[in-house]
Amino acid sequence: MTPNQVTLIRIFVAVLAVALFSFRPHLFAVDLAALLLTVLAIALDGVDGYVARTRGLATAFGAKFDILGDRVVENLFFTCFAASGLISLWVPVLFFARGALTDFLRGFARRAADECEQNGMLKTGWGRSLVASQTSRASYAVLKCACFCNLGLLLSIRHLPAAQFAQWFAAEPTWLLATAQAITLATVIFCILRALPILWQGRRYFTGRPRGPKTVAVVASR
Predict the structure, then answer these.
(1) Total Cβ atoms within 10 A of residue 37
(2) Residue ranges of the domains in the chain?
(3) What contacts 9, CB < 8 A, 6 or more positions away?
(4) Residue 30: how many CB atoms within 10 A of its CB?
(5) Using alpha carbons only, what angle is made at residue 96 by residues 88 and 79, rounded to the nearest 5 degrees?
């Protein structure tokens, strides 16, 4: 199996999970299946890169397709949970805007790097730590997985029939809602922080400042 095929499967799994969350009539077993698919969609995020590295199948198209898969998956889930009323509509809007802007700057900077014979990597330590380090990427993936799973569990509880809900819970678990909101906020903040190095290095394109031969290009971000 190629890395691109893994990315395709990840997108399909995410679409299926969101479809199951939206399935009517709402069944707890269906929501549970959606939760398991959510975890799988996040877990597959690291599989395509692993396959590409270990099998020597890394390509420029694959790297871009992997980023596209990330954008599709996160926007699918955030839009689903926003439509369900669990989070603000501004969360998927922010993720969409952040992804569009950083991808635009990355693509523009990649062409500029070719012209200036640059390698396209961030030169600052804080930029590499926030954007390109394995710790940052793994932490971001764990945050998104925890965020989607907590929101999915809360949505599943809300989908329970009234009689079954009353039998299992006297009231909606406030701690679960608070936890889901806190993790969502942490994910949003981390998302913005990881975009800062790209926006900072891409500021020259908005100010119209001429580029010299020592211009540093914007690193690819995920």
Answers:
(1) 21
(2) 3-207
(3) 44
(4) 18
(5) 45
Tens digits of residue pLDDT in 154-172: 888 877 765 555 455 555 5
- Look up the pTM and report it: 0.80
Give domain 3-207's CATH number out of 1.20.1250, 3.10.20, 1.10.1740, 1.20.120. 1.20.120
Q: What is the 3-state secondary structure (H, E, C) of 165-203?
A: HHHHCCCCCHHHHHHHHHHHHHHHHHHHHHHHHHHHHCH
Is the alpha carbon torsion for 88, 90, 96, 99 positive or negative? negative
- C-alpha to C-alpha distance for 211 and 220, rounded to whole angstroms: 19
- Count of alpha carbons within 13 angstroms of residue 172, beta-carbon side: 17
